[in-house]
Amino acid sequence: MKTVFTLLTLATALPAAEPLADTWGTAEREENYYRITRITVPEPHFIEPGCFATTPDGKIAIGSRRGDIFIVDGLSLPIPDPTFHKFAAGFDELLGLDWRDGSFYATHAAELTRVTDTDNDGRADRYDTVSDVWGFANYHEYALGSKFDDEGNIWVALGLSKSYYSDALFRGWAFKISADGEATPIASGLRSPLGVGDNGHGVMIYTESQGPWNGSCSLKVLKPSGFMGHPISYNWYEFAPEMGPVPVEPNSPSRMEIERERVKELVPYAVVFPFMRMGRSTSGFVVDETDGKFGPFGGQIFIGDHTISVVMRATMEEVNGVWQGACYPFREGLSTGILNSHFTPAGQLLTGGTTRGWPVRGSRTNILERLDWTGITPFEIKEVTIEPDGFLLEFTKPVDPETASQSENYTMDTFTHIYQSGYGSPEVDQTEPKVLSAKVSDDGLNVRLKVEGVVQGHVHHIKVTDVLSTEKDELLHVDAYYTVNEIPAK
Amino acid sequence: MEQAAGAAHNFQSNTFLKPSLSYRYPLLTAACLSLGSAALAQPIIGGLDREMDAILAGRVLLTELNCVACHNSSLQAKGAPALRETSTRIQQSYLEEFLTDPHQAKPGTTMPNLLGSLEKEEQVEAAKSLSDYILSLQTEGTPTLPAPKPSAESTARGKELYHQVGCVACHNPEGSSLENSIPLHRLGEKFIHSALVAFLENPHKARPSARMPDFQLELSEATDLASYLLRDAKVRESVQADLSRVAAGKEWFEKLHCAQCHDPEQAPLPLAKALTELDGNRDCSATDYQLTETQTSWIQAALQSMDDEWDPQREIDFQMTQLNCYACHQRDGKGGPGDGRDSYFTTTNLNLGEQARIPPSLSHIGAKLIPYTLKETLTNGSKQRPYMNTRMPAYGSAPTKDLLELFLAHDKLPVAEFTRNEVNKDARLAGQTLVGDQHFSCVACHTFNGHAMTTLNAIDMTVMANRLTENWFHLFLRNPQQFHGTTIMPNFWPDGKSIRPEMLDGDRGKQIDAIWQYLEPGQQARMPSGVRPEPIFLDADQGEAVMLRRQYTGIGKRGIGVGYPSELNIAFDAAQCRLGSLWQGPFGEMSAVWRGQGSGFVKERSKTVYRFPVGPALALLDDMEAAWPVVEEAVKAPGFQFKGYTLDAVQRPTFRYLFDGMEIKDFFEDQSDGSTFVRSLTFDKKGSEKLFFRVAAGEKVTAGADEKTYLLDGQLQMKLSLPGQIRTVDSQQELIVPLAGAESFTITYEFLTK
């Protein structure tokens, strides 16, 4: 009887008014592996988390868009029993927070500020300007701050004026700033950063947003003296002689792959997040250093998306001196527009954000969400790396050799974006490489794909269908997107 | 067992099962053949509490009782709870008792009694073994925690939730005994508190069939609800299970074919003969299910018509009965809250009428909501109606997949014919005008991006174009009463003629289309006339100052506003290291910096704000005639470096900045009279010969009684600790003070009028 209805065609065409795309449709299954615990912030507090830090005594500090730093205890308990304590207030859009030598270092739109409780009464009483090397005079001039790097610097990524221009000093630049305020310019050409930090390999990266000169959202490497792609901020080179001469202007419309040759300072996207499929405004990220407490993805990047309220994964590798890598779906169904994430000492991923100003799928405010690994390992594409003649896929569980060795179970398509001064880009120059063979490693954890037609400069969408684990699990997510800047030599 | 008296007319016969089946599955058969113990309550299916179409009701029983888990059929068995993490949920003692005799332990259960044919002692032994095995099943879930004693407050909150959010659509309200309420029986013996909290937070994990939907409770809500549900339970710790009979239990588990319902992926069909081969009059075992005569007759009716093809609407009816959508919703005149439950459907806004408390009709729902929204609503629940206390829970995608497809494929409405406007700014602007308070005033009832013009909060306008089909929007606006007889929504086009004929030729279609185009960008649509967001006030609190670094008028982005406990306020300019403004009264309204993208200005809450000149307040001048350096607003003053501030015991800042090789500390002390600030500047070395301070500028500065007293606008008195003078340079009038040799300087600002 049921077949009568499954044969009927469905009205699947969505009306135009659907700005948030479809979901991945995997939330229910994801829940088996990564459980979401929602934590409502009690009134009268109102927190829009933009950044997090862990204090030496294991509490979580949260910096809020409204400008407060809260210290929260009890978040990690199986049933959280949090107490919220306002430690400091008054900042402008807090988007970076770390702790060092008895003080917080708070990056907000106006400054990098050292925040100290000198009389130990539990509230900050001393606010020192560490650096205000940048101009701050216009709408949309956010400042994103990293944690301290190994050399004791906080990296600050500066958004453009009104998101299009560079009207105030160093808008669209990145700096590294020491704890005593020494500021070194690192790169120009940023557009609208929403996260900055270490990529897990000791290299600083930032999250860039789709828009002018950015076909889609991406992670980019903050290479010293590098140019991140948006030339509107060339006007400040005379204030930063250590950055060298002003780079050549990129042509528009063009391709990143072509302009890389012309503009030698241009650093290509390391990981592209295909628009809508993998977020629409990728935001803050964090590297899993939980020693396995958060599951099988140690060392990988976990990155949020503000628009579609998801957390994704990303991995990076260096090939021929250029960083590149892949992104993967991880967990959807969060309740707010994710701005940032943080690992608690117990190895749970705390996320938070905001709903205002830009469209979001998760419309709840004043909420934190904690992702706990349930202890059950999902069957996932753990990491994609490039090989001279194809790709190596590592899985989280041993694969069933029969299904995993069939090359038709792997499909690939590639595309790139127009590199242009206009806003964003459609996906263009599509190709379909051929998977010639799939070879399973002895331990079953790796599959080597021999591929004909890998295209430099393109995003490679790898879709794995019908590959089972030895325990006959289906993949939780079947897609990975690898950005090829370089192909290793044989 | 009073409640069961007369309820269980067991349908008994030992001829129903054919010998072959008995032979293949001796124990199952034996169980089916066993006589029930004393008459107990029949299985309760929430959706079957009305005058029923017998065939439909029978099919529902076939799925809900999991008959079709063993008897092959095209019907989809409901399935039974997942057992994998039972040990994290259910107490061992209860489980043993339940397995020994489900109907005794939980009257109304849909679980058949599979041990009924055994001797009593063997029953107990088998149940204990099964229980051990089930509790031993691999679990990687959160371990159960010691049970806290629920507080009276938590229990009270839970009681309110229970009777408000929709629990009583299926379960009994406290103190009532309504027909076909899903029993909540002896929960205190079954669950400890933390286990019930975990279940309530995510019921689908244990019960993937979603017959108990997921209300997406906050943790605190689940905690309160569990407190209420366990209000009479003894507080006790989770007991470490003693699992000595696992192997025997596994044998029982296999012998009884428990996996058919509890782990269907491991249970190959068919176990028993196909449903279509069963004889409705003969092949029905009722004993182990405790079926009533009526229930049995329903099953018989269904079995006799298994070959009937159903039209899609009847299939929708069937699936809505399975999920018991009818407990809350009507569709085509059927369903909706029944007597005894209706009064628990409540609203926070009675002014919006019945629609505000009764969940919406599902008639034509597949033609009303766009597929994405319908899918989201069924899968993940919905919170579009802030005024409705009853919540639409989540049913998950798998249990609603077929229903979604049926709704979308078969719900049809007439196609609205209309003339489309050109898609452009003009159309959107017309739409924005039409919904505003000067025209149709949709904003009088509907919120816009959460903001309300009045206390009414009908469904938000910015979500409409992302929820509704365009066609439904046109049909509904043309005649709302056609969809809801009692709606308070007016018809703006009576007899097809617009009440605002001057817009878009008065054309109904064009006007509705303009509104649609205007609403399409969702939250990004521009705010219509009449809507004002609630203000967000920030004020000194409990004797302490508040501070906010934001954009302030006359300063720009690097303002630092401070609201002092004595209702005096300043805005300091960190880019130019100067006082930007002073005002009296409450501090500020933050909507423009804490809403939307937050790109506006803090609004000072005073009509009178004294603003001080843009540009640095300190300068090195060669002489009294030298021009004051000009620096534009929001540009850093050359030679200055802002260094931060410290806060005193009541959070008042002392600003620190550098200029001309000295560090300046700048402290504003509000006086308790509520009208006086004493501002002290101290320098870490003596001011140089050329150092001057500009206190104020402009024509409104006038001299007072002596060379240390001046007035701004005649109403703000400024008393200086050092003599100043008003000078005019380049037609600019300024009050300046030489600071040569000074180590400190004080200005006392006094508001002469409140």
Description:
The complex is a heterodimer of chains A (490) and B (754). Chain A is mainly β. Chain A contains four helices and 33 strands. Chain A is 4% helix and 40% strand. The model of chain A is unreliable at 1-19 (pLDDT under 50). Chain B has 754 residues and is of the alpha+beta class. Chain B folds into five domains: 10-139 and 243-304, no CATH class; 152-229; 312-410, no CATH class; 425-524, Cytochrome c-like domain (Cytochrome Bc1 Complex, Chain D, domain 2, Orthogonal Bundle), CATH 1.10.760; 537-751, Beta-galactosidase, Chain A, domain 5, CATH 2.70.98. In chain B, strand 20 (725-729) and strand 21 (732-738) form a beta hairpin. In chain B, helix 19 runs antiparallel to helix 20 (397-410). Residues 1-39 of chain B have low confidence and may be disordered. The interface between A and B is large, with 70 and 73 residues. Strand 9 (126-131) of chain A pairs antiparallel with strand 12 of chain B.
Q: Which key phrases capture this entry?
A:
heterodimer, A: mainly beta, Neuraminidase, Immunoglobulin-like, 2 domains, eight-stranded antiparallel β-sheet, B: 754 residues, 5 domains, 26 helices, 22 strands, 28% helix, disordered N terminus, Large, multifunctional secreted protein (chain A)
Summarize it.
Chain B: Pfam families: Cytochrom_C. The complex is a heterodimer of chains A (about 500) and B (about 750). Chain A is mostly beta strands and about 500 residues long.
- The assigned structural class of chain A equals mainly beta
The level 1 CATH classification of the largest domain in chain A is Mainly Beta
Task: Determine the number of helices of chain B (DSSP H or I, runs of at least 4 residues).
Answer: 26
Task: List low-confidence stretches of chain A.
Answer: 1-19
InterPro entries (chain B): Cyt_c-like_dom, Cyt_c-like_dom_sf, Cytochrome_c_Oxidase_Subunit, Multihaem_cyt_sf
Domain Cytochrome c (chain B): 53-138, 153-233, 244-411
Protein name (chain B): Cytochrome c domain-containing protein
GO molecular function (chain B): electron transfer activity; heme binding; metal ion binding
